[in-house]
Design brief:
Blueprint (H helix, E strand, L loop, with lengths): L2 H11 L11 H19 L3 H14 L4 H13 L3 H14 L4 H13 L3 H14 L4 H13 L3 H14 L4 H14 L2 H14 L4 H14 L2 H7 L2 H4 L1 E4 L9 H14 L12 E6 L11 H20 L14 E15 L9 E8 L2 H5 L8 E3 L15 E3 L5 E6 L4 E3 L8 E9 L1
Antiparallel strand pairs: 1-7, 2-3, 3-9, 4-7, 4-9, 5-6, 5-8
Helix pairs in contact: 1-3, 2-3, 2-4, 3-4, 4-5, 5-6, 6-7, 7-8, 8-9, 9-10, 10-11, 10-12, 11-12, 12-13
Length: about 425
């Protein structure tokens, strides 16, 4: 009889939990020992071992809250969110005073986009444990998802009372303050985030935006120095191709034929366009040559910005990873203001431009614009921006914390570019 059969027979033929014989001390000791092994297995990424251990535990104690909670965690980790919600709901009912069960249920509900229900479960967890740092923080994030920014600010502040070096809470607090138009408070929160995590890209962004809003122009100018930080580089040739036009044609064909190219881009800045997944994976074709151009550009870029007193370059670690993706924009296609918080250096290479942009007859349509804050922030001061006109073969490198967007363009031809992030 295998584990599943033993467990099924236990459930069918056994008495209710109220009638079940209490566990012996030796059984409880063994369960506690095995639960520790399960936690180590989950932490070590060994889900099969964790699942096998839990199956044995649940044969002995089918309603053990810790075991069921860990079983639901495995479901979450494997992407089975609906099953995890059901399991966490059962745990919360079996052990109503188990704060972690309510927290985990809330986290699973958030993953389903059910933020109002998640808020209730986070609140229940906090009633049981008012010093539950992650519950305060996640509750704040859930409040932001439903538009309750003031409530989110309160919970970020509660998080920081318990954990003053919680840089993510400080960063999100700064962002929430910018949404509310509280620039001075946003600046203070950004500085708190940078004090505990000097390389926090969000905090760099928010500090610069808040500095402009509060009139601290010198600090803003230092953080957003476009002459130092934004580097255009025009390419006229590429090894292995007859000329740059042939290289760009090969890139355009590769992007347009890529199986991951889709117009349904969730949580991305692209509008009226399509985007690929990471082009560095799988069959690379001309992307390999582009990677070499990126590497050469980076070798020139890092010393150029490093030869200054700017606070960002000394924080940049050894960059060993490249995420690279194609973007195809159509009529009125554009990208909203965004930054790349996971990366250190970002860039874009222009592959194909519509004729209307090549002629330059429609002003700045289709250009890339740097340093404008996102529309979600209640900004009132004028923010100096830097515009760069795309050219086929042009590559632009910049720090990942600088907000940038593209300006919509008219016409029915495609605008094809390849963006990239350099990560540690």
């Amino acid at each position: 009889m295998n584990r599943k059969q033993r467990r099924r027979n236990q459930k069918i033929g056994s008495p209710s939990s109220a009638e079940r014989t209490p566990l012996s001390a030796s059984d409880q000791d063994k369960i506690n020992h095995d639960l520790d092994r399960v936690r180590r297995a989950i932490t070590g990424g060994n889900s099969p071992q964790a699942s096998a251990l839990l199956s044995d535990i649940l044969v002995i104690a089918p309603d053990h809250p810790d075991a069921l909670n860990l079983e639901a965690t495995l479901l979450m980790n494997s992407g089975e969110i609906s099953r995890a919600v059901k399991k966490f709901t059962k745990v919360a009912a079996l052990a109503p005073d188990f704060a972690q069960a309510h927290f985990n249920l809330a986290t699973a509900l958030s993953a389903q986009g059910k933020f109002k229900s998640a808020i209730k479960s986070y609140q229940r967890a906090l009633r049981l444990d008012c010093f539950y740092t992650d519950a305060h923080y996640n509750l704040a994030n859930a409040y932001r998802q439903v538009g309750k920014i003031l409530e989110a600010v309160n919970q970020y502040q509660e998080t920081l009372k318990i954990a003053p070096t919680h840089s993510a809470a400080a960063t999100n607090l700064a962002s929430a303050h910018l949404q509310l138009g509280n620039a001075q408070a946003a600046l203070a929160a950004s500085e708190q985030a940078l004090a505990s995590e000097p390389g926090n890209r969000d905090a760099f962004s928010f500090s610069a935006i808040a500095a402009i809003e509060t009139g601290a122009d010198q600090r803003a100018a230092r953080l957003l120095d476009p002459d130092l930080l934004i580097h255009p580089r025009q390419h006229t040739a590429c090894a292995g191709f007859d000329d740059i036009a042939a290289f760009n044609r090969a890139l355009a064909d590769h992007v347009l034929a890529h199986p991951s190219l889709t117009g349904t881009v969730h949580n991305k800045a692209t509008r009226n366009g399509a985007q690929t997944e990471n082009l560095a994976l799988g069959e690379q074709g001309p992307i390999a040559a582009l990677q070499q151009l990126i590497g050469d550009a980076l070798d020139d870029y890092l010393p150029a910005i490093g030869n200054s007193d700017h606070p960002y370059p000394p924080l940049i670690p050894n960059l060993t990873k490249l995420d690279i993706w194609g973007t195809v924009l159509g009529t009125q296609g554009h990208q909203t203001a965004h930054m790349h918080r996971a990366a250190w250096i970002s860039g874009v290479y222009y592959v194909r431009l519509p004729e209307i942009m090549v002629r330059g007859s429609n002003g700045t349509e289709g250009w890339i614009e740097f340093c404008r804050p996102p529309d979600a922030f209640a900004c009132h001061a004028p923010h100096p921006v830097r515009l760069i006109e795309p050219k086929e073969g042009l590559m632009v490198l910049f720090p990942s914390y600088i907000y940038h967007r593209t300006i919509p363009f008219s016409g029915d031809q495609q605008r094809i570019s390849i963006a990239f992030d350099l990560l540690a």
